[in-house]
Design goal:
Number of strands: 16
Order of helices and strands: EHEHEHEEEEEEHEEEEEEEH
Radius of gyration: 20 Å
Strand content: 25-35%
Structural class: alpha+beta
Shape: globular
Helix content: 10-25%
């Protein structure tokens, strides 16, 4: 699966205004978006595959399994992987959205999985949200993001991705079986608009929090990166023996762990991301259609917020 991307930055002072404009364009209420992300790195050395040349080059399978995509990609360069926890699905009274300020409205929605997930979006049901005292178990997804393609001459960022839902069992044991271990801390790279350009290190566990909308086939995210005040109490598998069971990842939400309550890494700015998922990147017609739709939305947003390509190295997920 391929992802087409455009990024922009929105000052915090214009957040409510831009969110209201996006809601008008998408003709829907913004849906809450909140993910907690844990970064993992491989524990094995890099093994370079034998190079294929000319007509013998391998062609991506149209029906490639997401797990096969990940395993195939990590045979050469090694990549960081994200273990992502959906906090919206777990939170009480899920789906409550409140927009304050200009054009603000209050509404509740219920978010449901679309089933096959082929278009990368969610089905929205405009039914009032209900509050429950029983918290749902964590919903984990393993995310692989390749380095963006070079020399495509497309006016959008293009990269190979794979999302693998972890439907049961111990998520950290699964990562350990893949020979990946949790990264305690990291120094952020330069991200869209230099938002995450920092000299100091942070715990690799971080949050992305904001709102999600859908316009035609385009997923719109307006969010801030958040970091906890203290490192998350996640156990590393560094000293885990092959026959032992790694400690499970804590499922405590930020509301019940005030000492790790996240705060904005860049309180003065938000990231705007426009993305389209292409199920078969080997078909030029599908890729061209996705590019045209992204560019059309970019033109529609002119005068509101500027979105564009980002530096390819800023989205590099390879292990150095």
């Amino acid at each position: 699966m391929h992802e087409l991307l455009l990024h922009g930055t929105v000052p915090s002072t214009r957040h409510n205004q831009v969110l209201s404009i996006l809601a008008g364009i998408a003709a829907m209420q913004p849906q809450p978006y909140h993910e907690r992300r844990h970064i993992y790195k491989p524990t094995r050395p890099i093994v370079r595959p034998s190079m294929q040349v000319g007509g013998s080059q391998a062609v991506q399978s149209k029906q490639a399994n997401p797990m096969q995509t990940v395993q195939g990609a990590i045979q050469g360069d090694l990549f960081y992987l994200h273990l992502v926890e959906d906090l919206v699905a777990e939170s009480e009274g899920k789906g409550d959205v409140e927009i304050k300020g200009e054009g603000g409205e209050v509404g509740g929605v219920e978010m449901m999985d679309s089933g096959d997930g082929a278009d990368g979006h969610q089905t929205i049901s405009t039914t009032p949200s209900t509050t429950t005292t029983n918290r749902k178990p964590p919903t984990w997804t393993l995310q692989f993001r390749d380095i963006p393609e070079a020399g495509t001459r497309r006016p959008v960022t293009t990269r190979l991705i794979a999302d693998i839902p972890i439907t049961g069992g111990n998520a950290q044991a699964f990562m350990s079986a893949l020979e990946y271990t949790y990264v305690p801390s990291f120094s952020p790279r330069i991200r869209p608009g230099n938002l995450l350009k920092k000299k100091n290190s942070h715990t690799s566990t971080h949050h992305l929090k904001g709102h999600r909308l859908t316009h035609n086939s385009t997923s719109i995210l307006l969010f801030q990166p958040l970091i906890p005040n203290s490192p998350a109490p996640i156990s590393s598998t560094k000293n885990t023996t092959p026959n032992s069971t790694p400690a499970p990842i804590p499922t405590t939400t930020t509301s019940s762990a005030p000492n790790t309550k996240p705060h904005p890494l860049t309180p003065n700015a938000y990231i705007l991301q426009l993305s389209i998922l292409i199920t078969d990147g080997t078909k030029p017609a599908l890729m061209e259609r996705g590019v045209k739709e992204l560019i059309a939305l970019k033109e529609l947003l002119k005068g509101v917020v500027e979105v564009d390509l980002v530096e390819r190295g800023a989205l590099d997920t390879r292990v150095r």
